[in-house]
């Protein structure tokens, strides 16, 4: 089977199950953005792997996240009540609780935030900040989807926590590297 | 001539030819996203160039792609029937066929896919996956443009194949580096 | 205070001041995209810091830019006339002039452009081009906001100049590294 099936050349594509929709449909935008997020996470992992001192726990947690983002993608790609819906494991409160515990673990090692910090530092930290911002874009697209048709609201909550997790991970990555955080120096005060 | 011409400060900008439109116009969104894609391809090229074992054929193919993405940008920036349209070489079936041959060449070296693979691996592979996801975003914007006004439908098909090409290239980059692909471990199975 | 406050789990969020809006609101899209831009700038800084010959002036200018992008974010997050508006320093003509002087400084060291150049080269240059394209996306979102409700028009102008600045910086980064620029070879001429 070739990668390019040409079935989408008219601008329509298939969801998981029988439905066909425009590739411009907000549902496709939502899981397409989650795919972009997954790729941004992969770039952060690659930077961690090539750093002076790769952080093994971070790699494992990001691998977990990459798997989970495919669960998120499958959830978004599958309308409830359609034939294949039974194959899909929906994102639920337990997934959210799992990621909150992970946030707490990363956040506990770094000082409380008093001000915005520059999304910068090591390559791993900076790439995690990029992923964080893409996670927030994905959350916004999911909210647009929820405004338009039925979908799983836990996916929005989950993506929100993913962005908090990536923030906490970025701070941890800089701390492990011994880098000082730069705080926002508001205009007028610089 | 200064870089900043200030002619766009009112929020309108020029297409190629005489027309002026809002910078929020879907046509500008479409070629602006192709510009973002071209930049993502450039980052992947830079990573390849700095890797332990730069892949010369990959660099040449990505250079081809960067040129082609400017052809795509010019195509999108030029409404048919306007004065400068005759200067522009439109994307056509031959361009699509050319890129399909390239996909086949990269795909042939790697095992068939049975499951989604993590967009990860070497820095080059991970950056190619980011570009892949941006190509898909660009495809979606072009479809929105096609829903709204006349444009070249081959551009959508071309961008679709670009995302398949970048996928095949990412897999090849990991294979050359001797990296094992990670497959999606579906929830409930982890 | 935990990172995740759960107050946004219903899909609404707070602006700076009392107003609550949908996270899908164009105002949130605008400052969310500026956050993505700030992160892209952070990645370029990280690449510069890890290059063979880090460019100290570039790092300082990008640090300035990261601060300024938080000023931009605060400006966008704060509706005029709301209770906290008095705390915010708005982007003004002087900020624009400041960045124009910076553009001139970077542009003066490189030959005038005669054709589009590939967004590529060193890792720093390529990452600056990615940031440039994201700045242009942010500009487009701000224009959408301006089409829909009152906001500070100088923010659009400022973001426009930011993209020109990042272009000039990318060219300078390649020049310092002794890299030759690749020009667009138009279809038909390759
Ligand atoms: C939604 C979707 C996407 C979305 C979201 C997917 C997600 N989960 O996050 C995104 C945007 C990520 C995506 C990307 C791509 N996709 Co897609 N995608 C689909 C679609 C519509 C549904 C997939 C899905 O999520 N199913 C839900 C899950 C639960 O069901 P399932 O896939 O059957 O999963 C079961 C099996 O995978 C099995 N399983 C699990 N592990 C394993 C392991 C082995 C060894 C085996 C045998 C089985 C197995 O168990 C799972 C649960 O029951 C399918 C088409 C279709 N209608 O099925 C195309 C499809 C799979 N995609 C396709 C392609 C080409 C791609 C891309 C390469 C496109 C590109 N150029 O970027 C990428 C690849 C990304 C990657 N990293 O691998 C093609 C594959 C064609 C081919 N040659 O095989 C398909 C068939 C569409 C098509 N007709 O063109 N895709
Ligand atoms: C559409 C457009 C874009 C789009 C898409 C372009 C594409 N093809 O992908 C995108 C978003 C990429 C873009 C980006 C930028 N753009 Co622009 N763009 C345009 C626009 C409107 C049309 C360009 C085009 O594609 N023309 C179609 C082609 C076929 O025509 P052409 O450009 O005349 O090409 C011919 C010549 O280039 C010639 N040629 C080819 N090779 C060579 C080589 C040499 C040596 C020579 C002499 C000629 C030559 O042959 C071509 C075919 O006939 C022009 C303004 C205009 N109306 O012309 C601005 C314009 C060229 N852009 C401009 C700017 C500033 C930029 C950016 C720097 C903005 C930024 N901050 O990011 C970047 C630069 C990107 C880069 N990598 O170099 C300015 C340049 C100002 C200046 N000082 O020269 C212009 C003039 C707009 C303006 N008035 O402000 N742009
Ligand atoms: C808009 C906004 C954003 C926007 C834009 C902000 C910008 N300026 O660019 C963006 C999208 C960037 C953003 C991102 C994040 N945000 Co936010 N954000 C806000 C919001 C709504 C307003 C912030 C703002 O810009 N205020 C305008 C400025 C002028 O006012 P100010 O913040 O009071 O600034 C004054 C003080 O900071 C003080 N100050 C300056 N420097 C210093 C230094 C010290 C030491 C002290 C004590 C004070 C101080 O002087 C400033 C001027 O008077 C607040 C909630 C709120 N309503 O206040 C949340 C808020 C601050 N954000 C929050 C969070 C969690 C985040 C993120 C971590 C989310 C994520 N997962 O990505 C990131 C962090 C980004 C980073 N790099 O640090 C939480 C923080 C919760 C907590 N535990 O403290 C808040 C409180 C919202 C909430 N209730 O959940 N945010
Ligand atoms: C930290 C601040 O970011 C804003 N906010 C909340 N969710 C998102 C999102 N998905 N994207 C962008 N901004 C968001 C709110 O204003 C919040 O208070
Ligand atoms: C692999 C799957 O990705 C979806 N799909 C097809 N085209 C796009 C695009 N441009 N962006 C996001 N998703 C897309 C379809 O559901 C397809 O089956
Ligand atoms: C260089 C060219 O890019 C287009 N242009 C101007 N502003 C933007 C933007 N924010 N995003 C994308 N394209 C833009 C115009 O067509 C301009 O002439
Ligand atoms: Mg396809
Ligand atoms: Mg301009
Ligand atoms: Mg929150």
TrEMBL record, chains A, B, C:
Pfam families: Cob_adeno_trans (PF01923). Pathway: Cofactor biosynthesis; adenosylcobalamin biosynthesis; adenosylcobalamin from cob(II)yrinate a,c-diamide: step 2/7. Transmembrane segments: none annotated. Its EC number is 2.5.1.17. The keyword Hydrolase does not apply. It is an enzyme of class 2 (transferase). It catalyses: 2 cob(II)alamin + reduced [electron-transfer flavoprotein] + 2 ATP = 2 adenosylcob(III)alamin + 2 triphosphate + oxidized [electron-transfer flavoprotein] + 3 H(+); 2 cob(II)yrinate a,c diamide + reduced [electron-transfer flavoprotein] + 2 ATP = 2 adenosylcob(III)yrinate a,c-diamide + 2 triphosphate + oxidized [electron-transfer flavoprotein] + 3 H(+). GO terms for molecular function: corrinoid adenosyltransferase activity. Gene3D superfamilies: Cobalamin adenosyltransferase-like. The keyword ATP-binding applies. Residues 3-172 form the Cobalamin adenosyltransferase-like domain. InterPro entries: CblAdoTrfase-like, CblAdoTrfase-like_sf, PduO-typ. Keywords: ATP-binding, Cobalamin biosynthesis, Nucleotide-binding, Transferase. It comes from the Bacteria. Belongs to the Cob(I)alamin adenosyltransferase family. NCBIfam families: PduO_Nterm (TIGR00636). This is Corrinoid adenosyltransferase. It comes from Deinococcus navajonensis.
